[in-house]
Every structure is written in structure tokens, then in C-alpha cells.
Design brief:
The structure holds three protein chains of three kinds. Chain A has one helix and five strands; from the N terminus they run βββββα. Chain B has two domains: about 150 residues, 60s Ribosomal Protein L30, Chain: A, CATH 3.30.1330.10; about 160 residues, Phosphoribosyl-aminoimidazole Synthetase, Chain A, domain 2 (Alpha-Beta Complex), CATH 3.90.650. Chain B has a seven-stranded mixed sheet with strand order 9-11-7-12-10-13-14, with helices on one face. Chain B has a four-stranded mixed sheet with strand order 1-6-4-5, with helices on one face. Chain B has a two-stranded antiparallel sheet with strand order 2-3. By secondary structure, chain C is α/β, with parallel strands linked by helices. Chain C is built from 16 helices and eleven strands. Chain C has two domains: about 300 residues, 3-Layer(aba) Sandwich (Rossmann fold), CATH 3.40.50; about 45 residues, no CATH class. The chains are: A alpha+beta, B alpha+beta, C alpha/beta. Chains in contact: A-B, A-C, B-C. At the A-C interface, strand 4, strand 5 and helix 1 of A face helix 1, helix 2, helix 7, helix 8 and helix 10 of C. Strand 3 of chain A pairs antiparallel with strand 8 of chain B, so a sheet runs across the interface.
Chain lengths: ~90, ~350, ~375
């Protein structure tokens, strides 16, 4: 129920009573409803589902998540578990 | 059931027929003077070549000398019904020429001649037909394959989406060249001539129903020169096929079935342009199933891969060619994909129509 | 954006899965509530990399699958009317009603249009003032704001020819229904990241507490899913049952307040019949009285609906995680994506269609 993709807000305007935005999904531009993000500005990233922006995307949180996950990778390496490539077993 | 506002005045009954300069009307398909005028005004100038200039209902020609001595003929036909008629990177005319040039080329044949049949919807602006026909001639010239015979019919409003075009093509296969879908062998390498999904997304974007604008152009292109170069560099090629409707995955399945082998591709090696991936992510499409109109799958012995890729990289339509997989003995008749994260997934044929989803 | 590809990084995923393998000591059953997560797990092959002790069961988070048969039949009856343009997400097109589906109505000449957004349906209504435009408003809390926005726009524009056929369902009541069932096997939960982007996750701690089950808000990329599973397994191994957020770049505890305000204005809690599961009290949303005129069920009299479900379909047990699709005797024989007996075989994220499409390589044809 949850196909949503992140995109960059490039333009904000009002159209037919609703707050709308043009959002760039990496070369694909689509008009999206921004009613739920009154504080969003151009340049922000939003997560979009069915033509509606659900929330803003925090780049800082994204970076922190990736850093934390990379640390797991380093622990693996220290424990010498890195070599064992986990490929699909039992096929 | 037509609600045409034009009075029907053509035919012997009318002493002074009205001129219909800007729109195609039923009379253009009647075979009489209006048809002749349409041919003279639109088709003949665009497709000008010596065979067509003979003005017969057929084209007669000699085969190339080598073909007369040894070799075989290949013939193919395809009908084109794309909507909208014009999209980024092409139009129905270019599609019709390239589609059949490519089909013929997939046998390893050198395409020689094309025919083009038009079924035109009453009301189509003549200017639009002119644009289509000009585009067809440009594609034919690029491919070096002239259009030597044709036909025109007109149907009532609502009975054709603007225009339907059928093209047929004939080509010559040098003796000894054996290329076909049943010939893939375990150990063979699988190549693709470039990025997938461009055509399908470009057409969807042009259609406008889903409200998105993609920086994507259709890849529609004649591939006979590219294929010729590949076959020169890698004469051991066993399979050539273009992944049109149904996409790369469906076409690989056809080959796997015909050859009774397993084809395994690696997700990380498949070239795809960023906006195509973005559009697919947004709509919930799998790019492996999106149509292409300027790509060829090449299956060949592994020792000829480098030569084949080098030959493709030298040409504009093969700049992004890549090795994407291998042929294995089993599981037979299956296409598998090694995913980004190291899992293995079965790729089935496309079942039904791809529809945008929210789930 | 630059981070998009990072969450599909195969190397990082393998390392996270390596950590799961390192810490797991016994069997665990984890449910991912959202069908989109089921799809993503199978699509990327993540289930193949996980250690055998982890069993993933797929929950009823597929709004296409759980929309009641009666409502589908009503939708089909409305779509067949010559004065109606029936708009729907693509997902619904082949869902079987008692006798047919939207696709066959379209083939028979009915005006059925697939849209990407309910706001596109409002556009269609404005462009076709002589027709009634009805939008099939299915979905969980993720989709509800889009549907609410379409109604707010229709009302502000004074449109008289736009209405919604509402079939909204909510996640927390479904979790209660699953965890509260006597035969429940689920020990840990991956909560739906995009539902939580709207609603936050403040509703979940009471559930985690009541049933002693860890709940981790999880995203949809392979790395997100691997991380969500890792955090759940860590809790299971440690014997804790709290709510954690593995999707902080999109989800906050409170969620999107502006979206929630829109929802409160347009929708109110109602009982909903979940196809294959039964009626769960206050598990869905219907329209507030202020918007009653936009309710397609009020606007169209579709007569008496006699529903007829296939006797072979075990969708209910599958949606509750009690059975797997390949346990079903009709799976891939009588019931296939081309000829579905029930919704989970036709929905792109239904467990049955996912199993059918992503079946393992050694299966015979």
C-alpha cells in the first residue's frame, strides 16, 4: 500500500485551491499536492505517494542511518566475517 | 456513425468536387483521382526512388549478385498502432520503418527493401501525414533501405487512431550464417546493445495520462548497421533479438524457451538511464518489462564478447552496450536474475498490461 | 537524490544480513504488515539471504486484497453505468468481483480510467461536466491524505459530479486482530514506513506492550528492510518489546500533523469488512457527515448486491499469516494471475502473486 518515492521540490504554487509543487524525481517531473507540507520550500526533498507529498525527507537522518549501518560493516570486517559472501543458499 | 461535417461530394455524381487540402477524407482512399493526388503530393516526393518511380503496384528487383548465387531470403512484417503518433525521439513513421528493418536484421539478413501500407483515419490533417512520411523517408535513408511499394486506405472517423501503418521488409542472408532463437548454448554470453526502457517511458510520458514529464527520448533506431558491424567482428553470434513489447525479460524468456536453456542475467550490469528508473519507481513499473525500439540482445560464444562489444561501442546506437549475463544448461526454459543484493529471482514473461500501482 | 542508491547497496545489505546471522540463536516469526514490503523483500531476494531461523510472514497490508467483495461489486455496478467515468488506481483493475472485474467492464465499453492520483480524477470531473466521475478510494493511511485532498478540492471548487467510493482501512486494528487471535504465531512486527510517515508511530507502544511484541518502523529499500529485521531480531534475542524507528529519514513519532488534520476533517472511524478476514470494528474510515454528498454509496443506488466468493480461496488465512500461498490447493493450478480466484493472486503486492512470480528457480514449470 506504500509505493512512495523521494523527489526534489523545484516549484511551489497554488492551483485550484490547493498548495501544489513541481517535484523532480531524478529527471521525471510531476505535479504533486503539498497541502500537508506548509513549511516546505524549494530544494527540499519530499516522499511522494499517489501524487501527494507525505512528509519531508531528512538528509541528515539519511546520512546518520547509512553511517550507523556502515559501522556494522566494519565490525563484521574486524570479526573476520567479511570474506564470507552471503549468497543465495539452498537453490 | 461518423459525425463528419464535410459534405460527401466526391465521385461521378458531383460535377465540381470540393478540394480537401488540409484533411484526409474518405475520398483519399477510394483509389481514384484523390488517391492519385495524395500519392503525388505526399507519398511519392517523400519516398522518391527509382523503383517507386515506375509507378507499378509492385516492385521488381534483382537480388544482389552474391545472393543470387548463394544465401537465403528473409521477410518480415509488422503493423504499428502507437498512440500518440509523435513522441520524444520519434513517431509512428520512424517506428514503422525501424521496426521492420530491425526484424529483418535479427535473422542476420541485410535488409533490402520495405513496403508501407497506410490505414488513415478520416480527418487526419494532411500536414501530419506529411510529417510522418518525411520521418519515414529519413529513417529509410539512414538505414539504407528504400520503401518501394505501398498502399493507402481511408477509414471513417473513429475507426483508426489517426493512422495505422504496416511495413513489410525483405532481406538477404549470406550462406552459412545461422542465427535464430533456438541456437543459444550453455556457456554463451548475453549482451545488450544499450540502456533499457527508454521507448516505453517516452511514449507514456507523451501520452500525458499519468501527468508526468520525463527527460527521456525513445530509442527508436534502425539497427542493421550495428548488427552488420557485430557480425563482422563476431561471426559466431548465435542469437539476435530486439526486446520490443514485453521488454528485455519477456524476450529473454522467448529465447530460453526456444533454445531450451537457462539464461541468467545480473541486475547490476543492466544499463538503464536514471530518468527511466525514476519513472518506473514512481509508477511501480519494472524496467525489465518496458518496451524498447532500438536495442538488440546478442547471444554469442564467450571468446567473441570483447570483439562484439568493441564493435558496438564504436557506433552511436551501441555506445552503452554491455555484457549482462550467461546461458546455462539449467533450470531449462527459465530466466533468472542475480539481484543487486545477491539474491536470485525468476523473471517470468509479462502477464497482461503493466499498470501504474500505489501498492 | 544522492542517498537513493545507497539504500540499494548490495554490499551494505550483505553486511547487515551477516550481523543478523551472527546474533540469531533460535527460530523467530516476523510479520511485515505492508504488502509493499512483501513485494520488495521478494523482488530483491532478501528472503533468500536471511538465516533459516527467520520466518517472514506476510500480513494483510494490501488494501487491494482486503477491500470487501461487496464494495467491489458495488464499484463494478457503478462503473458499468453509461453516465459514469469510473477512476481507479491500476492495482484494482483485475481484482475479481463476484462475477467480473473492472477490466472486463472496460472491455465491454464501460468508461474506466486508470489514474496515478485521485487529484487526476478531480481533473477528469472538471473536464467532463456531463458525466459523473467516481474515484475508488482504497488504501491504508498512506493513501488517505491524497483521497482527502481530492475531496477538499472538489468541495472548494463546488463540483457536483465528483464522488468517492470509500474503502479505507487502518493498520493498528489489523495488528490487534492478528496478535489477538488464539492461533497467532507472529512474534515481531515490521511496521509500514509510509503509513507511519503520515500517522507517526505513537499508536504502537500500547500494542507492543499489550502483546509483548517488538515493533520496528521499517522502510522499503533492501537496506531498510534488512535493518528493520536486524533491529527486530536484536529485540527478540534480548527479550524486549519496544517500538523503534528504522526509517527516521521519513518517519517521526508524531507523523505529519497537517496531513492528520486533513484526515480528521474528511474521515471518521467506521467498522470495515476485511475481505477474507471478516468485520473488524472501527478498523476503517468513512466520510464525515460534512462530505456525505460526495459518498458514491449515497449518490448511486446500485441495488441489491449478492456476493459470491470462490469456495477454494483461502485468502483470509494467508492475510493473517496462518498459511503460505503454496499451502493452498488451488495455488498456481486453478488460481493464477491470469485467472485469479481471490485478490492476493492479482494484487501486485498480494502474497499469492508474489509467490507465483518470484517462485524459486528449482521449481518445475
Amino acid at each position: 500500500m506504500c509505493l512512495a518515492v523521494p523527489g526534489k521540490i523545484t516549484e511551489i504554487y497554488t492551483l485550484n485551491t490547493l498548495r501544489m509543487a513541481k517535484i523532480d524525481f531524478g529527471g521525471v517531473i510531476r505535479e504533486v499536492c503539498l497541502e500537508a507540507l506548509p513549511e516546505a520550500k524549494t530544494g527540499d526533498y519530499a516522499i511522494v505517494h499517489a501524487g501527494f507529498a507525505l512528509n519531508l525527507l531528512s538528509e541528515e537522518e539519511a546520512r546518520e542511518t547509512l553511517d550507523a549501518l556502515r559501522e556494522i560493516g566494519e565490525i563484521e570486517a574486524e570479526l573476520g566475517l567479511e570474506d564470507e559472501e552471503i549468497s543465495s543458499k539452498g537453490l | 456513425m461518423t459525425d463528419s461535417t464535410l459534405p460527401i461530394l466526391e465521385g461521378a455524381a458531383c460535377p465540381v468536387p470540393m478540394r480537401h487540402d488540409d484533411q484526409i477524407v474518405m475520398g483519399h482512399g477510394s483509389g481514384g483521382r484523390m488517391t492519385q493526388e495524395l500519392i503525388e503530393r505526399v507519398f511519392a516526393p517523400a519516398f522518391a526512388n527509382p523503383i517507386l518511380a515506375q509507378s507499378n503496384d509492385f516492385a521488381a528487383f534483382l537480388l544482389p549478385l552474391e545472393a543470387q548465387l548463394h544465401g537465403s531470403l528473409a521477410i518480415s512484417t509488422d503493423s504499428h498502432i502507437v498512440s500518440p503518433l509523435f513522441f520524444a525521439g520519434g513517431d509512428i513513421g520512424r517506428l514503422a520503418v525501424c521496426g521492420t528493418v530491425n526484424d529483418v536484421s535479427m535473422s542476420g539478413a541485410q535488409p533490402l527493401y520495405l513496403t508501407a501500407g497506410f490505414i488513415i483515419e478520416e480527418g487526419l490533417p494532411v500536414e501530419m501525414l506529411e510529417r510522418i512520411v518525411t520521418s519515414m523517408q529519413a529513417a529509410a535513408l539512414e538505414a539504407g533501405v528504400p520503401i518501394v511499394a505501398g498502399d493507402t486506405k481511408v477509414v471513417e472517423r473513429g475507426k483508426a487512431d489517426g493512422v495505422f501503418i504496416n511495413t513489410a521488409g525483405i532481406g538477404w542472408i549470406p550462406a552459412g550464417r545461422q542465427i535464430g532463437g533456438a541456437l543459444a548454448r550453455p556457456g554463451d554470453a548475453v549482451l545488450i546493445s544499450g540502456a533499457i526502457g527508454d521507448h516505453g517511458i517516452a511514449v507514456l510520458s507523451a501520452r500525458g495520462e499519468l501527468g508526468f514529464d520525463a527527460a527521456v527520448t525513445s530509442d527508436v533506431a534502425p539497427l542493421n548497421a550495428l548488427i552488420g558491424a557485430v557480425l563482422q567482428a563476431a561471426p559466431g553470434v548465435r542469437v539476435l533479438r530486439d526486446p520490443t513489447r514485453g521488454g528485455l525479460a519477456t524476450t529473454l524468456n522467448e529465447i530460453a524457451q526456444q533454445s531450451n536453456v537457462c539464461i541468467e542475467i545480473t541486475e547490476a550490469t543492466i544499463p538503464i538511464h536514471t530518468p527511466v528508473q525514476a519513472a518506473c519507481d514512481m509508477l511501480g513499473f519494472d524496467p525489465l518489462y518496458v518496451a524498447n525500439e532500438g536495442k538488440v540482445i546478442v547471444i554469442l560464444p564467450p571468446d567473441q564478447v570483447d570483439a562484439a562489444l568493441a564493435a558496438m561501442h564504436r557506433l552511436p546506437y551501441g555506445a552503452e552496450a554491455a555484457a549482462i549475463g550467461v546461458v546455462k544448461p539449467s533450470p531449462a526454459r527459465r530466466v533468472l536474475m542475480k539481484t543487486f543484493i545477491g539474491g536470485t529471482r525468476v523473471l517470468d514473461v509479462l502477464a497482461g498490461e503493466m499498470l501504474p500501482r500505489i501498492c | 537524490m544522492e542517498y537513493a542508491q545507497a539504500f540499494r547497496d548490495g554490499d551494505l545489505v550483505q553486511r547487515v544480513v551477516g550481523e543478523i546471522r551472527r546474533i540469531v540463536t533460535r527460530d523467530w516469526v516476523i510479520m511485515e504488515i505492508c504488502g509493499g514490503q512483501t513485494h520488495a523483500i521478494l523482488h530483491s531476494g532478501l528472503d533468500q539471504l536471511l538465516p533459516p531461523q527467520i520466518e517472514l510472514v506476510h500480513g494483510p497490508g494490501c488494501p487491494v486484497c482486503v477491500t470487501s467483495l461487496e464494495l467491489i461489486d458495488k464499484g463494478l455496478a457503478i462503473a458499468a453505468r453509461p453516465d459514469v467515468i469510473f477512476c481507479s488506481f491500476g492495482d484494482m483493475l483485475r481484482v475479481p468481483g463476484s462475477n467480473q472485474d473492472l477490466f472486463s467492464i472496460k472491455a465491454a465499453g464501460g468508461q474506466v480510467r486508470v489514474v496515478y492520483s485521485p487529484l487526476d480524477a478531480v481533473k477528469i470531473a472538471r473536464q467532463n461536466p456531463d458525466k459523473q466521475v467516481v474515484f475508488f478510494a482504497i488504501g491504508f493511511e498512506t493513501t488517505a491524505p491524497a483521497n482527502a485532498a481530492s475531496l477538499l478540492q472538489a468541495k472548494a471548487l463546488g463540483l457536483k459530479n465528483f464522488s468517492l467510493l470509500v474503502s479505507h482501512v487502518c493498520v493498528p486494528p489489523a495488528m490487534h486482530a492478528i496478535l489477538g487471535a488464539p492461533d497467532n504465531r507472529v512474534q515481531g512486527f515490521l511496521a509500514a514506513g509510509h503509513v507511519c510517515a503520515v500517522m507517526g508511530y505513537w499508536e504502537y507502544p500500547p500494542i507492543a506492550e499489550q502483546y509483548g511484541v517488538p515493533i520496528v518502523v521499517t522502510g522499503f529499500e533492501p537496506l531498510d528492510l534488512a535493518q528493520g529485521i536486524l533491529m527486530t531480531v536484536r529485540q527478540l534475542e534480548a527479550g524486549t518489546h519496544t517500538v523503534e524507528n528504522a526509517y527516521p529519514r521519513i518517519v517521526t513519532r508524531e507523523g505529519n500533523q497537517a496531513a492528520q488534520a486533513m484526515l480528521k476533517r474528511v474521515f471518521r472511524p467506521v467498522d470495515r469488512n476485511w475481505r477474507g478476514v471478516g468485520t473488524i470494528p472501527l478498523s476503517g474510515w468513512g466520510l464525515q457527515p460534512e462530505f456525505a454528498e460526495f459518498d458514491a454509496e449515497n449518490r448511486f443506488d446500485v441495488g441489491h448486491i449478492q456476493t459470491r466468493e470462490s469456495p477454494l480461496c483461502i485468502a483470509g488465512e494467508i492475510l493473517r499469516g496462518l498459511k503460505k500461498p503454496d499451502n493452498c490447493p488451488a495455488f498456481s493450478t486453478l488460481c493464477t494471475p491470469a485467472n485469479p480466484l481471490g485478490a492476493p493472486m492479482v494484487s501486485s503486492e498480494g502474497a499469492c502473486s508474489a509467490y507465483f512470480r518470484y517462485h524459486r528457480p528449482q521449481d518445475t514449470l
